[in-house]
Amino acid sequence: MNVLVPIKRVVDYNVKVRVKADNSGVDLANVKMSMNPFCEIAVEEAVRLKEKGVASEIVVVTIGPNTAQEQLRTALALGADRAILVESADELNSLAVAKLLKAVVEKEQPQLVILGKQAIDSDNNQTGQMLGALTGYAQGTFASKVEVAGDKVNVTREIDGGLQTVALNLPAIVTTDLRLNEPRYASLPNIMKAKKKPLDVVTPDALGVSTASTVKTLKVEAPAARSAGIKVKSVAELVEKLKNEAKVI
Amino acid sequence: MTILVIAEHTNAALAAATLNTVAAAAKIGGDIHVLVAGAACGAAAEAAAKVAGVAKVLVADNAAYAHQLPENVAPLVAELGKGYSHILAAATSNGKNILPRVAAQLDVDQISEIIAVESADTFKRPIYAGNAIATVQSSAAVKVITVRSTGFDPIAAEGGSAAVEAVSGSADAGKSAFVGEELAKSDRPELTAAKIVVSGGRGMQNGDNFKHLYALADKLGAAVGASRAAVDAGFVPNDMQVGQTGKIVAPQLYIAVGISGAIQHLAGMKDSKVIVAINKDEEAPIFQVADYGLVGDLFELVPELTGML
């Protein structure tokens, strides 16, 4: 079966972002960008399904600026077969992304779509679920285990109180949680080979999708800074401070 | 304006997060209706009717909603939600699972994890692991929103007397089925609702050593959490994880033991009122957010602290 893996180019998770002085957003000029960590897990899961003989072809897709080709090449180096870039310079909301992905799903007809559960920049946790609604496919969100069995996929999900397993009819949508797998690194020969793999570039207009949004960001501020704390010398001093100064115990 | 709040419940009881979500709805203003969708969920519906400020409780009691499968619940919420100005759910694993599906069915954007209500159409939400706070405005006909519980003080669970009305739901969509679940058992307070949280990280070295934290937590009546490092190393189950990808907590007191304080962990706890860090590395980033820091060996300090309480 074919697997589609949507990925996102985001600021590297180790970067401590700074809010712009004019409060229009965070400063992303000259900041290291990477593939969203949850998307790496999604690519890894697709590659493992291929290695097990379950998946036949892996297509990776991203929606973003031209520079997002770097992340597509990374995914190709990790084992994806071909890539699609839906080029859009604007920052799009999840619904617009889901609509674009739906157009790609209709074209590619994957049996399984694997996305990350959330992007670490917008922290929305929406796209996979929205794609589920638009395509009418079942969804297995926050997956920590994925097993394809015949025309169904069993997904073990991380829920607030523990784990839950659901059986979904294929085609289905899965969003990855951190514990699904440990993503591999791309080897140098594979990075070289990835340069020759096919990468198509399309536009939202070509897919016939409007990316208009009903939500706009008015401003972005730095969170309130915590006032500097103190180091205490002993446990006795700590207990005394918690009891008498902070009054929390 | 009428607001629909999707109740978080276990069929038998209402989850605490629902009270925070109703509090957010009260800040928006307008009539508040609560939807309890489940199977044999009469008790949860009764509890919802008693919540202060709730005008009406809609009960969709149907076997198809027993495990809140989004393929079944989302169409119900989308259909009911059309007449409302806002649809709110708690940003729990359940709310996050269902609500974006509802929003897409209604063809509107969703606003995730709001921490403040500025006005009926303007909200604040954290982005970049809590390193920036965005103020967003929605012009959608139906505003679909998940609410971060720690951003709102819970509304009183008693004092209301809402009318309870049964609504008919759709049948099972037949796309998904519940197979089973494995819930972690704990007698301690629930992590997201606890007044005090004691968390351990990689510095705990193994799962057995968490007994020091359990002893401390039991003295304080606290919940026990963990960093991702501790969960990945298999010390404790993943539902104990505090952070961007785990649970968001904002207790009165958060005690971080053997936790370095990575960005992703801070995203889950930096709104705690008082933070205490116990770590042997005095350069650890956790000390930059801690109100009280104690540098030293946790295996000596934690039992000493437990003994003094």
Structure description:
The complex is a heterodimer of chains A (249) and B (309). Chain A is 27% helix and 31% strand. Chain A is α/β, with parallel strands linked by helices and 249 residues long. Chain A has one domain (2-245): Rossmann fold (3-Layer(aba) Sandwich), CATH 3.40.50. In chain A, the strands form two sheets. In chain A, strands 9-8-7-10-6-1-4-5-11 form a nine-stranded mixed beta sheet, sandwiched between helices. A two-stranded antiparallel ribbon of chain A has the order 2-3. In chain A, a hairpin with a 2-residue loop joins β7 (138-149) and β8. The radius of gyration of chain A is 21 Å and the shape is globular. The mean pLDDT of chain A is 96. With 309 residues, chain B is α/β, with parallel strands linked by helices. Chain B folds into two domains: 2-166, HUPs (Rossmann fold, 3-Layer(aba) Sandwich), CATH 3.40.50.620; 196-308, Rossmann fold (3-Layer(aba) Sandwich), CATH 3.40.50.1220. Chain B contains eight helices and 16 strands. Chain B has a seven-stranded parallel beta sheet, with helices on both faces. In chain B, strands 13-12-14-15-16 form a five-stranded parallel beta sheet. In chain B, α3 crosses α4 and α5 (210-220) runs parallel beside α8. The longest helix of chain B has 13 residues, at 16-28. The chains are: A alpha/beta (249), B alpha/beta (309). At the A-B interface, α3, α4, β7, β8 and β9 of A face α3, α4, β5, β7 and β8 of B. β12 of chain A pairs antiparallel with β8 (132-138) of chain B. Chain A: Keywords: Electron transport, Transport. Chain A: GO terms for molecular function: electron transfer activity. Chain A: Heterodimer of an alpha and a beta subunit. Chain A: This is Electron transfer flavoprotein subunit beta. Chain A: Belongs to the ETF beta-subunit/FixA family. Chain B: Heterodimer of an alpha and a beta subunit.
Label the structural class of chain A: alpha/beta
How many helices of chain B? The count is 8
Q: How far is the first residue's CA from the last residue's CA of chain B?
A: 50 Å
Major sheet strand order of chain A: 9-8-7-10-6-1-4-5-11
Question: Which architecture of the largest domain in chain B would the CATH scheme give at its second level?
Answer: 3-Layer(aba) Sandwich
Radius of gyration of chain A: 21 Å
Report helical residue fraction of chain B: 25-40%
| CA-based gyration radius of chain B | 21 Å
The domain count of chain B comes to 2
N to C succession of SSEs of chain B: EHEHEHEHEEEEEEEEHEHEHEEH
CATH topology of chain A: Rossmann fold
Helix content bin of chain A: 25-40%
First-last Cα distance of chain A: 58 Å
Assign the CATH superfamily of the largest domain in chain B: HUPs
Q: Give the uncertain stretches of chain B in residue-range form.
A: none
Cofactor (chain A): AMP
Family (chain A): Belongs to the ETF beta-subunit/FixA family.
Function (chain A): The electron transfer flavoprotein serves as a specific electron acceptor for other dehydrogenases. It transfers the electrons to the main respiratory chain via ETF-ubiquinone oxidoreductase (ETF dehydrogenase).
InterPro entries (chain A): ET-Flavoprotein_bsu_CS, ETF_a/b_N, ETF_b, ETF_beta_N, Rossmann-like_a/b/a_fold
